[in-house]
Amino acid sequence: MDEELRELRRRNADWEYIRSLPPRMREAVELYIETGDIWLAAKLAGMTVDEFNEIRIKAGILW
Amino acid sequence: MSLPPVCVMDACFIIDWTRWGRRDLLWRVFSTGFVPEPVLREVVTPTPLRALREWMVAGLLTVYPSSREAEDEAIRLILEMRRDPRIPRIDPPEALCVVVARRIGAAVLTENRGILRAYQLAPESLAPAVVWNSLRLLAHLYATGLAEAGSFAELVREYEDEVKHAFSRREVDAVARELGLE
After folding, report:
1. B174 contacts B35 by C-beta, under 8 angstroms
2. Domain that holds residue A28
C-alpha cells in the first residue's frame, strides 16, 4: 500500500509548480512525495504541518 | 468494537477533518477531546483554528499540557517502533498522541501510517489506546447512522472532495468489508 500511495503522490503532483519552488521547499515537497511523512517534510521546509499542508494542496499532491 | 469516549487528535487529522462540512459529527462519537500542546503549535491556518476555537468554546476540546516526561516517552516509543521494519516512520507529535492516549485510555485520531500500522499489527502494544484514522471514523459514522449518505463510498467521496484527501481504494474496500458496509 505504501508503494501504491507513493506512486499516486508522484503521478498527481504538479511538477512544474514544484520545480518553481525555492530549493528548501522543493526538497521538502519531494521528501513528502517519497515518504508521505508530512511532519518531517514540514520541518525540512521550516514550517508547521498546517502551513506545509497548504503547499501540498497547491502542488496537487494527494495525501 | 469498544471505543473510548475520549479522543486525542493529531495535527494531520485536525487539519483535514476540520475542512469537512460535517466535522462536528466527531462529537457524536466522542464526548471530550485533547490536543497535546506540541500538536497545537502545528495548526496555524484559519479553518482548523476556527474549528478548534469553536470546540474549545463549547467545552468539547482542551489542550493536554506538554511535559518533558511524556515527550521522552514518545521518543522511546519511536525507537521501539523502528525495530519493526513493517512499521513506517512515526514522528514525535504522533508518538506523543499515543503516549497521552495510553495514559488516559483514549482513541488516537491520526493519519500517520506508522501509528496505524503499529496498531494494526499489535493493538495490545498500544492498549488501552485505540487508533483510528478519518476513514475509520467515517465508516463508524456511516455504520451507526450518524452520517447520512447514499452509500459509504459516497460519504468517502464527499470527504475526499471537501478535504482534498485521497484514500487508497484498497484501504476503503478493506474498511468497508470489515464493517460490513459493502
Report:
1. no
2. 2-58
